[in-house]
Write a structure and sequence with these properties.
alpha/beta; eight-stranded mixed sheet; 15 helices; about 15% strand
């Protein structure tokens, strides 16, 4: 275990330790970093334990402190070892509250919290599989702390439907979007033009963007199947799809490449690595797709695209039913249905830029009203204070 040094050591307020396996590009990681910045601004000491990742420099720039810990490990011995490390940190760094954002670190955090007598908050970020009793028990750690945050109303309903264990306190706090960073007015047109040029998309073409880590349930193959239906479509503007995200291993990237080449749509689909300048990527796109075949607990892509005033096509399940206003800010389609996805893309293409812009404007208004970063961090800080106050007032 190692730590980094930054201004978190100089803060005087309560110390909060967030625990997340990695600090790369997922919704849990992004929320961790965003909240660390809010904690620092509010006078808390913001510590984050994780394996590390590309977001570490940003975490530290926002006033958080990164503590290296192998929180991806899931074996019982690893969970116990991490519990001892967390308990040691609680004592040496005078930590007042733990916040676990994934199941493996939540088990370690639960044991450490009980050993040291401090409260534990969890956030339920994903739609965890609950088909087996052992799996449900493993998942149930997210309900065993002092409070659980559901990142959407769908997530809260999923918890109630699949688990008998009732948490002490459950609140819905939607994932927040940084609407200052994801603001079309702040993206210089040349940034978007340069990206479109690098993607090989002509000015009159229609760019379709599916961002997200390369894992099967994110639906990249569904979009490829949909795009294959446009290969010989000479009507309307040319559609070009861009798939961008981190590889997750298991040979899925190679499978995507084979699917593109096998259908002969290399000139219609590009497969890229993770894009750092996501605001520019959304600005460069005409349509943004979230094609997840399993329910997204929240659906960060749809919300960020909405903040960037882009028309969205999303699958009709999970948090997308909250982030996308069907028929107003975007189109929803059945999960895994390539024909329906193709029809939605064709309709948005043929509707023209003015109609897509109107849908995008409705999407940004929806995000500004319901899914801002300020709202997420503010509601989380309120919960922290309530949990800490209740813990202080408890007898013994």
């Amino acid at each position: 275990m190692s730590t980094s040094n930054n201004k978190a050591d100089g803060a005087t307020g309560p110390a909060v330790l967030q625990l997340v396996p990695q600090l790369n590009s997922g919704g849990a990681e992004r929320s961790t970093v965003d909240l660390a910045g809010a904690l620092d601004r509010a006078g808390f000491r913001a510590l984050v334990a994780s394996e590390g990742g590309r977001l570490v420099p940003e975490l530290e720039a926002l006033g958080g402190e990164w503590i290296r810990m192998p929180l991806e490990a899931k074996s019982p011995l690893s969970l116990l070892a991490n519990a001892r490390k967390i308990a040691g940190l609680i004592r040496t760094r005078n930590i007042s509250l733990l916040h676990a954002r994934s199941r493996a670190p939540a088990w370690s955090a639960l044991w450490a919290a009980r050993r040291t007598g401090i409260p534990l908050v969890t956030t339920w970020h994903g739609a965890y599989a609950a088909d087996l009793a052992l799996k449900r028990f493993y998942n149930s750690v997210m309900l065993r702390g002092d409070a659980v945050i559901a990142n959407s109303h769908w997530t809260a309903a999923h918890m109630r439907a699949n688990y008998r264990l009732t948490p002490k306190k459950c609140v819905v706090i939607h994932r927040g979007v940084d609407t200052d960073r994801f603001d079309p007015a702040r993206v210089h047109p040349e940034r978007a033009v340069a990206l479109r040029r690098s993607w090989g998309i002509a000015a009159e073409g229609v760019a379709v963007l599916l961002p997200g880590r390369l894992t099967r349930w994110k639906g990249q193959l569904v979009l490829i199947d949909a795009m294959a239906r446009f290969a010989r479509d000479s009507a309307g503007a040319h559609l070009h799809a861009v798939l961008a995200g981190d590889e997750q291993g298991g040979g899925y990237r190679a499978e995507i490449e084979r699917a593109i080449h096998g259908r002969g749509i290399e000139h219609h689909v590009s497969l890229l690595e993770h894009i750092e300048d996501m605001p520019a990527a959304y600005a460069a796109a005409d349509i943004v797709v979230s094609a997840s075949t399993k329910p997204e607990a929240f659906g960060r892509v749809a919300a960020e695209a909405g903040a960037m005033a882009r028309a969205v096509v999303a699958t009709d399940h999970g948090g997308a039913r909250e982030t996308v206003l069907a028929g107003t800010s975007g189109v929803v389609v059945p999960p895994g249905d390539a024909e329906a996805l193709a029809d939605a893309l064709r309709w948005l293409r043929d509707a023209g830029p003015e109609h897509r812009a109107a849908m995008g404007a409705a999407g940004r208004a929806h995000v500004l009203q319901n899914f801002t970063l300020a709202r997420m961090t503010g509601d989380t800080l309120v919960l922290y204070r309530e949990v800490l106050a209740a813990h202080s007032a408890a007898p013994g």
